[in-house]
Design a protein that fits this description.
There is one protein chain. By secondary structure, this protein is α/β, with parallel strands linked by helices. It has a single domain, classed as Aldolase class I (TIM Barrel, Alpha-Beta Barrel). The chain is 40% helix and 15% strand. It is built from nine helices and ten strands. The strands form three sheets. It has a five-stranded parallel beta sheet. The termini are far apart. 38% of the residues are buried.
């Protein structure tokens, strides 16, 4: 179990709801993940349509038995727009949680650090629990904590690239500098091994969407990520072997019998 935003959870897998081939596959994939937190974007919803009705019914059923929605401000490019979207999401989804995204570059989808901090500060003053999507920049993370964020969600790589952890050094530094802050790798995860790597570094959770939603078999991939995240966390808790340059035999030579041949 682990604790985040006043909640106690079993799963460290946070999963998105976008880009699935159908609402049914989305629901089955999320169920297979065991996730207790799903992200949902206000912008991707439209009125009417049977798929939309199925989606809303699923959201309503999900918010039961220790499971939670995490609305996000995807697509926002400045603090004002993100704040307004967060306020609308709070009214619609009845939660003060928000995954705060303020995009600064449309090619890399890298967050705008200045607008992000500004929006986070205002939303926290309005009573939101802000989950900020940020880069792995140490100073940016410090500023977010200074304005009241209790959680950090640095990227592993740009959204949707599937490149994994581009800068393990920076992520390791964040873990060392903020040992008591919940840290979740958000974005860039493409394989279960990437998720396991993040957990081996001591991160508290992994948030992803594309790698499951666009897989040939989303349900199987969701299960694979579930096990990868669990394995990585177990490895971190057990204590991963440290790398070294010199080879070391796993079988002891002390007491090993030997033969001396005489001519």
């Amino acid at each position: 179990m682990w604790h985040i935003a006043g909640k106690t959870l079993d799963s460290r897998f946070l999963i998105g709801t976008a880009m699935y081939d159908s609402p049914e596959i989305m629901q089955q994939s999320i169920d297979a993940s065991g996730s207790q937190i799903i992200t949902v974007s206000l912008r991707r919803q439209s009125a009417g349509g049977s798929d939309n009705q199925v989606f809303w019914e699923f959201l309503q059923s999900f918010q039961q038995n220790n499971r939670y929605l995490l609305p996000n401000t995807a697509g926002c490019h400045n603090a004002k727009e993100a704040i307004l979207t967060a306020q609308m999401a709070r009214e619609l989804f009845k939660t003060n949680w928000v995954k705060l995204e303020v995009i600064g570059d449309d090619y890399t989808l890298q967050p705008d650090p200045f607008q992000l901090v500004e929006a986070a500060k205002e939303l926290i003053q309005q009573g939101f629990e802000v989950f900020p999507y940020c880069t792995d920049d140490l100073i940016l993370c410090e500023k977010l904590l200074e304005v009241g964020c209790n959680i950090l969600m640095p990227w592993g790589a740009p959204i949707g690239t599937g490149k994994g952890l581009m800068n393990p050094y920076a992520l390791t530094l964040l873990r060392e500098r903020f040992p008591n802050v919940p840290l979740i790798v958000d974005a860039g995860i493409g394989k279960p091994s990437h998720a396991a790597h993040a957990m081996e570094l001591g991160f508290d959770g992994v948030l992803l969407n594309t790698a499951v939603a666009k897989a040939q078999d989303s349900i199987k991939m969701s299960k694979a990520f579930k096990h990868g995240i669990e394995a990585g966390r177990l490895a971190y808790e057990a204590g991963c072997m440290q790398e070294q340059q010199k080879a070391q035999a796993s079988t002891a030579v002390v007491g090993q019998p030997f033969w001396h041949l005489e001519e």
